[in-house]
Amino acid sequence: MDKENKASGCYTDSMKGISTDRFSLEYFITNNLLYVDKTMYAYEFVRSAEENFFFLSRPRRFGKSLFCSTLHAIFEGKKDLFKGLSIAEKTDYSFEKYPVLHFNFANLSKLSAEDFIGSMQELIADEAKKAAGITDLREASPARMLRTLLSEIGERTGKGAVIIVDEYDDPLTKAILGGFSYTEEMRLVLNDFFSVIKNSSEYIRFFFMTGCVRLSNLSIFSAMNNLKDISMDPRFAGAFGYTEEEVEEFFGEGIDENWERCGYGTREEFFGAIKDYYDGYRFSPRSDIKVYNPVSLGSFFSDGCIFDNYWEKTGLTLLAVQAVSIYGISLFSDIEDNSEEITVEAAVSAFTNFSLTRLNDKKAGKDAVFALLYYSGYLTLIRQDVRTYILGFPNIEVHATFIGSLISEHTGDENYMDVWISHFHKACAAGNVEKVMNEIDIYLQGFQYDVVSKWDEAAFQGVFHSIFEFNSMLISSEVRGLIGRSDEVLIAGNHIWIFELKINRKAEEALEQIKRNRYEGKYLDYSRVHRMEIHLIGINLNTKTRKLSWIAE
Predict the structure, then answer these.
(1) Looking at 333, 367, 396, which one is the last position of a domain?
(2) Which of 315, 353, 116, 340 has the alpha carbon at shortest distance from 214?
(3) How far lies 245's CA from each of 41, 279, 287, in Å?
(4) What are 57-67's pLDDT values in tens digits?
(5) How many separate domains does the chain show?
C-alpha cells in the first residue's frame, strides 16, 4: 500500500494551530496553539526544595527547550499562563516567584575560544539584568561572573536563584565535530562554570540541565554528587515526546477528519500508519511507555497528513552515521533468525562513560557508536539485559532516514536518492521485474566495496528490506508459510513480490527454495480475488564483485 500517495491532500480544520519551530510556552498559550500538557511532570520537579538538581538527556527536537520554558514560567510565577493546565488545576502549587537564570548554550559562539568566552560573558550579563535587574556585573571569567551573580541575587532578593541550562553539550559537541583546536580550553571553561554551580548550592533554589549526550569528560557528572540524572527514570518516560494517549487526546480530531480523506479503510488503519512512522521511542528500561517524536508528528499534521521523513539532520546525527561507516559497523548483522526486529547490544557502561572525544579520535569501541546512535535518536531502548541495553530502530521515519544518510555518506552525493526513488516506486507498482531489479542493483552500487564485502545474508536482508521501507512501501520480513519463511514479501499496486536472498551462492538456488517451500501458497486466493499478479524472485549478491544476479517466475 502506497501510504505516501494515499495521504496526499489531507488536511485538518478543527485542530488548534501547530508550531514545530517555537519553544516558548508563553508563545504557545498567547497564540492559542496546540500545547500537549506536560505540566504535571514539571510539578514533580518544582514541588520539592530538597531534591532540586536535575539532568536530562534526549535527542534533538523532543521538547526539551519548550519544557525549559515551562519551568521558567513556573518559577517566574506566571500563573495566568497555566490556566486550564494540570499544574494549576490539579495541584496546590503556589507559583512563588524566583529569580531565573535561563542559559541556552546552543546560542553561544564557537568561532574561537575568545568568541566562546565572550558570548558566555554576554549571556551571563543578559541573564543578570533579566533576573535581578543587575546591570553592573563586572566582566571576568564566566565562572567568576556566575559566582558573583549568584551572591548578588541572594543578597538582593533573599532567595535562591533558579538555573536552567538548555543544550549544555552543544558548544563542546560542535567544537569536537568541527575539529577545532581549542576544545580542551572550552572544556575547562565549562568545567569551571559548572564547578561554581556545584559549590554554590546555598544560593540555588533549583537547577535543571538538558542535553543530548552525557559527556563523561565534563567534570559536572563526577563532581556534582547532588546532580540527579533522570534520563532513564521511569517516572519521566513520557515527559518528552507524545504518548499514544496524548496523541489520541490532542490530535484525535485531526485523525478523525483525515483518515477517510487520506484513503484509509478505517480510522485504526490510519492511526496505525502514524504509529509505525513516528512512534516507538522508549527512554526507560523500567517503563513500557513509548513516545512519538513531537516535531515529526506536528509536521505530519501541519503538512496535510503526508507521510514523510521530517527528521532533521544535526551535527550529532551526521556524526553518528559517519561513526557507523568509520568503525565498519553493520546494524543488520545481529538480527536474530526468529525475529523481524533489527537489534544491537551495548554495555550500560558505554552510556555512563561516553566520551565524544575518544569516539571522534577513533579510540572507542562499537558500543560507544551504539550509545551515540541512541543519544542522537537513531536507536531506542528495546529492553535491558544484565549490564547491557538492547537497542533498535524506533520507527519507519528514523530507519529510512538512517539508510538515506548512510547511502549519502557512502556515495558522497546528498541528492543521490531523489531521482532513484521516483523510478523505483513506479517500477514496483507497475510490476516491471527487470526495472525493479535494475534499480535495486543501482542502489547497491552506491555502497562502497569495503562495506559490502563484510555483509552476510542477515546484513543483506536488512539493507534490502530498508530499500522498500525508505520508499514507504508495504514490505514484510520472514513471512511464515506452510513450510519455512520467505525472506521478503512486498505488496505494491496489483503486484505481490516474493523475494528470497542469498549471499555468494546462486540466484537459481534462491528461486528453487521459494518453489520448493511454496511460499506463494498463502497468497493464491488473495491474488485471485483481487486480481493481483505474483512474482517469485530469487536473488544472489556477490560481495566481492558487488554483482547482483536474479531469476524470476
Answers:
(1) 396
(2) 353
(3) 16, 12, 15
(4) 999 989 999 99
(5) 4
Residue 484 and residue 373 in one domain: no
Residue 357 lies in a domain: yes
Query: What is the C-alpha separation between 20 and 405, in angstroms, rounded?
Result: 23
Calpha distance 316→212 (Å, rounded): 9
* One-letter amino acid for residue 114 of the chain: E
Give domain status of residue 406, yes or no: no
Same domain, 200 and 58: yes
Residue of 467, 459, 535 whose CA lies nearest to 503: 459
Determine the 3-state secondary structure of 366 from DSSP: helix
Specify the pTM.
0.76
Q: Which domain holds residue 195?
A: 37-233
What cell numbers appear for 521 in the block?
501458497
Give the CATH number for residue 156. 3.40.50.300
Q: What is the structure's pLDDT at 5?
A: 34
Task: Tell me, yes or no, whether 12 and 90 share the same domain.
Answer: no
The domain that holds 509 is classified in CATH as 3.40.1350.10
For residues 482 and 385, membership in a common domain is answered with no
Query: Band of the pLDDT at 2, cuts 50, 70, 90?
Result: very low
User: Using an 8 Å Cβ cutoff, are 58 and 314 in contact?
Assistant: no
- Amino acid 87 reads I
Handedness of CA 172, 176, 180, 185 (dihedral sign): positive
Is 276 found in the same domain as 226? Answer: no
Which residue in this structure is represented by grid cell 489520541? Answer: 248
**DSSP characters for 278-330?**
H--B---TT----BB-HHHHHHHHHTTS-----PPP-HHHHHHHHHHHHTT--
In this structure, the answer to whether residues 267 and 339 fall within a common structural domain is no
Pair (68, 125) in one structural domain: yes
Residues ≥6 apart with Cβ < 8 Å to 18: 33, 34, 298, 301, 302
Do the bridges between strand 388-392 and strand 343-347 make them parallel or antiparallel, or are there none, so unpaired? antiparallel
Q: Give helix 170-177 / helix 183-198 axis angle, nearest 10°.
A: 170
Q: What is the mean pLDDT of residues 1-7?
A: 35
Decide if 32 is inside a domain: no
Q: Residue 288: which of 193, 384, 206 has the closest Cα?
A: 384
pLDDT tens-digit profile of 140-185? Answer: 999 999 999 999 999 999 999 999 999 999 988 888 777 777 888 9
Which CA distances in Å does 184 have to 101, 234, 259?
26, 35, 53
Give every CB contact of residue 156 below 8 A, 6+ residues apart in sequence.
Answer: 132, 134
Type of residue at 427: A
Pairing of strands 53-57, 204-211: parallel
Distance, CA of 461 to CA of 342 (rounded, Å): 11
pLDDT tens digit string along 325-379? 777 676 644 433 333 456 889 999 999 888 887 777 777 788 999 999 999 999 9
Residue 206 bridge partners (DSSP): 162
Residue 331 DSSP symbol: T
